[in-house]
């Protein structure tokens, strides 16, 4: 589970970093636009910062901005920097994105589906470092050996800004196993799953 406790929790609370009026009413945003993945929520928050959406929700920044606000608040609250900017951004990401979605509905459905089609694999939801740093959603193991990872993405991900895609690719490359992408459409239907299953069956 994503870590959102500790001194940063105290700092965030006391300095009102994640107060909806100073960040984004994230649960309202989720209810309105129903993102199906973490990346989709990150992009939704950015969209509602950079644009005026007809839904009326306005974000005061991106998730990275909220992390930067937390980072800067340290000096005022503690008189020094105890945590790095990266740690602060990660903390706000955990709070706004990971905690708010609490394991995607689509990810769970994908796990059920892959388990059914590939009974010889042990299919589980990735957690902690793999999920938050490497952006891998699903793990596939066979006889106790790690075989591959899967990222579950909306089809619209392929149209996203190049830097987002590159960021994901670089994150994946830090891992020593192949990472596959599983896409879903706007109705939440998984795309080309049989093609993915074929690739997974070929893994040695
Ligand atoms: Zn909106």
Distance between the termini: 30 Å
Mean of the pLDDT scores? Answer: 87
If you compute it from the alpha carbons, what radius of gyration comes out, rounded to the nearest whole angstrom?
18 Å
Main sheet: strands, sense, barrel: 4 strands, mixed
The strand line-up of the biggest sheet is: 1-2-3-4
- The coarse overall form would be globular
Secondary structural class: alpha+beta
Report the sheet-strand fraction: 5-15%
Q: What small molecules does the structure contain?
A: zinc ion
Proportion of helical residues: 40-55%
Oligomer designation: single chain
The helix-strand sequence is HHHHHHEHEEHEH
Detail the poorly predicted runs. none
Describe the structure.
The longest helix has 17 residues, at 85-101. Helix 3 packs across helix 5 (85-101) and helix 4 crosses helix 5 (85-101). The protein has 9 helices and 4 strands; from the N terminus they run ααααααβαββαβα. The mean pLDDT is 87. It is globular and about 55 Å long. Helices cover 50% and strands 12% of the residues. It has 204 residues and is α+β, with helices and mostly antiparallel strands. The protein has a 4-stranded mixed β-sheet with strand order 1-2-3-4, covered by helices on one side. The protein binds zinc ion (ZN). Zinc ion is lined by residues 32-33, 48, 53, 55, 57. Residues 32-33, 48, 53, 55, 57 line the site of zinc ion.
